[in-house]
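Re: beginner question about structure tokens

> Can someone show what the tokenized structure looks like for a real chain? I only ever see the sequence side.

Sure, here's an example I had lying around. Input first:
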Amino acid sequence: MSNPLLQLIVLAGIAIFLILRLKNVLGTRDGFEPPQVDQTPARPNRFEVIEGSAEEPDHDILDHAEAGGPAATALAAMKRAEPSFGLRDFLGGARQAYEMILMAFERGDLSEVRPFLAPEVAEALQSVIDQRSAAGQTVEATYLGTRDTSLAAAEYDPATGIGQITVRFVGELIAVTRAADGSVVEGDPKAPRKQKDTWTFARPMGQDDPNWQLVATG
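And the corresponding structure tokens:
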């Protein structure tokens, strides 16, 4: 037997011995074994936003009031006191109330809108109506529409539970005041005018009666 062949046989024997020793020490892998996963929970980066950890923004409020401002804070408190309260719905109702009350005043008959008027406001409007009547004046009015309705301010008193919301309105109407003889005292029967008002409505939050009352005009 040649010397190189003898060396090859010796090396092969050593390799087989080492393989058998490794199998005894390490064991064998049969079938699928899942990869090892570090079980240490990952610590979130401090700049990450963890889902569910922050309160969702209330766009019903933030679409109309500055985040963190006094109006937004008051409106959020109103919602806590009365979860069914919605600012968007309120503004829609205020828009309708504005037209109803304004036209009732122009036509000189508050009977249908008195439930929506605080006593002092009803008294002030009725006083103007009475003065016109005493002077023999009448008003002809046609409402053309509300051009703008926007939140001006909001306040909430947790002690009394009273919420107050101030709204800016821009209406458009044709209104003519005539004297007893039919002559025009004020207005133009052919030209519409813009009516700008800032009204404050109030209501105890969380009560069964859903109606707001007009408590101030400006």
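Each token stands for a local structural state, so reading them left to right follows the chain. Residues 110 and 126 are 8 Å apart (CA to CA).
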